Amino acid sequence: MKEVSDLRLKGIRSALSLTYSLVSMHMGLRENMIDHVILTVSDFKRSVAFYAKALKPLGITTLIDYERKDGHPDLKGFGDGKRHFFWLKEGKPDPQAVHVGFVAKDHSEVDAFYKAALAAGGKSKESPQARLEYYPGYYATWVLDPDGHDIEVVNKS
Which of 83, 129, 145, 147 is 20 to 30 A from 12, comparing alpha carbons? Predict the structure, then answer.
């Protein structure tokens, strides 16, 4: 009985996901509605080095500097060659206030990020694994950056 219920729930989730995708396409909605995130870090150079290595497996490789002006702090922007959407600024971080999730194309990108993040000095929170309690096909990992921010990389296949 539980197996039938689980299958029914999986079918409903798939149908809802497909419906959302079709409605989004029809209405011209973008799937990713967030333009950018700015993360406050305690040691700017250390964090730039960490994210440059950790995000590389996800294709996030382009960096840009925004130099302090008009009251805005120095920023380092990370992007995919089309746009910069993840920014760092130096200050007093509050790791408990922020959770950032990046999209991976497949499970191997999740795994590659995990290895790169640990090699760059991150700490493991959760190794790469399927988390079906969140979503069918949810495969993710969580690491803590040098300031303790909770960074997730997920593939939803």
Answer: 129
Q: Is 145 helix (H, G, I), strand (E, B) or coil?
A: coil
Contact in structure between 91 and 73 (CB atoms under 8 Å):
yes
Where is mean pLDDT largest: 14-18, 68-72, 84-88? 84-88
Q: How far apart are CA 58 and CA 39, in angstroms?
A: 18
Compute the average pLDDT of residues 144-149.
Answer: 97
Alpha-helical runs (H) found in 28-66: 44-54
Measured CA to CA, the distance from residue 108 to residue 115 in angstroms comes to 11
Contact 93, 44 (CB under 8 A): no
Measuring CA to CA, which residue among 143, 142, 147, 152 is closest to residue 123? 143
